[in-house]
Amino acid sequence: MSSGKRPPDDDSKLPTYKLVVIGEGGVGKSSLTIQFFQKQFVDYYDPTIEDQYIIHCEVDGNWVIMDVLDTAGQEEFSAMREQYMRTGRGFLLVYSVTDQRSFEETPKLYEQVLRVKDKSEYPVLLVANKIDLVSQRKVTEQQGRELADRLKLPYIETSAKDPPVNVDAAFHELVRIVKSFPSDEDGEKNRNSTTGNGRRSKRSKNKCSCM
User: Fold this and answer.
1) 44, 93, 119, 205: most buried by Cβ count inside 10 Å?
2) Alpha-carbon distance 90 to 170, whole Å?
3) Is residue 103 in some structural domain?
4) Domain tally, the chain
5) Where is the stretch described as Disordered (predicted)?
6) Domain encompassing residue 75
7) Are 64 and 49 in contact (CB under 8 A)?
8) Is residue 158 one of the residues assigned to a domain?
9) Domain containing 93 — which CATH number?
10) What is the mean pLDDT of each run of 10 residues along the chain (211 residues)?
11) Is residue 1, in this structure, part of any structural domain at all?
12) Is residue 108, in this structure, part of any structural domain at all?
């Protein structure tokens, strides 16, 4: 629920959260991101494209800027992972409940985040996506929660298909996780985001709120 207030005109007064959506190819990373930013479901999206989105959001009554990178999940782009992991302050670690392999790869991706960040823990939200595909489900909720417990990560189940399930909640919860995590990187205030390597940048001042 929104407070009805508009975001400040001066962006420099708002904290910025650099968030990265990671996971294997085909797990629905782009569908989640596009549903959150554009409020529409896109069934197919070019898996070789990395897109950057910027939006003003109200989280728990406070306006923030979300700078979100939707990453390419194909194997040939894995060499680029460490580059965007260095800049991210929080990660949506996505797997598809219809894809056992994507589920099995999530611990490796989390370990890579920790290695790049040189931390024993980091702001990551484990996201079980495509829960609308009930008949195709291969990874149960119990298995997902057990993995989250093992990795000591918060867990959420999502669907980007209309009507979406927990899409806004996932992005807003990640902001809360980042805010609560001690940081020596001052990542929230860093606005020196660059685009390149085939990445497309999209900025939006659309109002997005979650109280």
Assistant:
1) 93
2) 12
3) yes
4) 1
5) 183-211
6) 11-210
7) no
8) yes
9) 3.40.50.300
10) 62 91 94 96 73 94 95 65 91 99 98 96 99 98 99 99 98 98 59 46 54 41
11) no
12) yes
Write down the pTM of the prediction: 0.86
- φ/ψ of 189, rounded to 5, equals -100, 0
Q: What confidence score (pLDDT) does residue 186 get?
A: 46
Task: Identify whether the C-beta of residue 151 lies closer than 8 Å to the C-beta of residue 103.
Answer: no
Q: What are residue 67's phi and psi, to 5 degrees?
A: -110, 100
